[in-house]
Amino acid sequence: MIRDSQFSARFAAVRQHTQQICAPLAPEDHVPQPVPEVSPPKWHLAHTSWFFEAMLLQPSLPGYRVFHPQFGYLFNSYYDGIGERVLRDARGHLSRPTVAEVLAYRGHVDAAMQRLLAEPLPPALAALVELGLQHEQQHQELLLTDLKVVLATNAIDVRYGAAAAAPLDLAAEHAPESLSAEAWVGMPAGSVEVGHAGAGFCFDNETPRHVQHVPAVQLRSTLVSNEEYLAFMADGGYERFHFWHAEGWDWARGLAVKAPLHWRPDPDRSGRWLHFTLSGLQPLPPAAPVTHISFYEAYAFCQWADWRLPTEFEWEALAPRMAWGQRWEWTSSAYQPYPGFRPAPGTVGEYNGKFMVNQQVLRGASYATPPGHARISYRNFFHAPLRWQYTGIRPARDAAGAP
Asked: For position 2, what pLDDT does the model report?
């Protein structure tokens, strides 16, 4: 049995941080869903509470009273083993429950969880609580990127960061990198161990640890900057098909994509660009890492620059020698199970395994990732056209030998 007095305090801190992210928002900001992949802030607040209610409180806390009998249907995300749910692209249609009712739901769940955490927990139950906290931290980053899309859709300039309650350093969103763009780190060809190691938490898709062969390779110590990406655009990067995958070319032409998401031409200065940030519309900082790009765009840029994207195994092998964490970094690796991977039994087995198809792996973290949530073995994953997350590019190149 496990009883950790810090567990309940950490639970309270994680839950409070989620609400701090939403504190600068008006009630009206909690509801819109501009695109299907973005969930309304109100839904995030409720879904993270539903996770604890459905996975822990209902099966494990004697006498627990469900807050509302329909909330399971409204706020289940993708757990088919639990039951039917509102379709993902319809989450923004829900004007009810109100934000106040969702916050009351969070309070109800939090009080019950504290009763559960007051007693010694079997190891399996403690592991499920930890999973719930890590899950909520994932949604904290999603909240920031989703609400950025919500605010950017407005016809007037909106500043999430105008409120003193904004829970992160907004200047870091467009901060330049300090290392030289000419610096590269490399390794000779050989076998490396990849995957989670040690006793700390990891998601099941980071296991089992195993050996991979990696060719002689170099990765640049800095990410591609806005200035470098502007050079790609100026050289006809979005008009020259031979830089693109066929699917990416069709995507860019079909949607008339000409620049990263959230970029806007400056109406007052010909040829200059602005970008929408959580601090509102700002001049594009040349030295900051380019962000909000799809896998298609990352691949096309590297083709133009005569580089390539690293595999996730190259990235993991060299990450201890690089600064990372400003942007999620696209890799050339398809999101697939590691050799010997087995989903966890029961409902939590749906967490990662069933998404291992038609997606690309991203590595690292972003400035919006909660402190302590990132690690070298973390495997993020998205479909190739998606770019609402803080995504970026770290170039790789083949190396005949090693430095």
From this structure: 60
pLDDT value at position 345?
86
184: its two tokens:
């590269």
Round to the nearest angstrom and report the end-to-end CA distance of the chain.
49
Residues in the chain with pLDDT < 70? 1-4, 162-167, 178-181, 400-403
The gap from C-alpha 194 to its chain's centroid, in whole angstroms, comes to: 21
Size (the chain), residues: 403
pLDDT of residue 181: 66
Could you give the 3-state DSSP secondary structure of residue 12? helix
Residue recorded with tokens 């840029």: 301
Placement of tokens 């990662």 in the chain: 352
If one counts every other C-beta atom within 10 angstroms of the C-beta of residue 360, the result is: 24
Q: What six digits make up the tokens of 136?
A: 């909520």
Which residues fall within 8 angstroms of residue 107, CB to CB, at 6 or more apart? none
The pTM (predicted TM-score) of the whole model is: 0.95
Strand spans (E) along 142-189: 184-187
Please tell me the predicted confidence (pLDDT) of residue 327: 97
- Tell me the DSSP string of 241-269: GGGS-HHHHHHHHHTT--S-TTEEE-TTS
Residue 242: Cβ within 10 Å count: 8
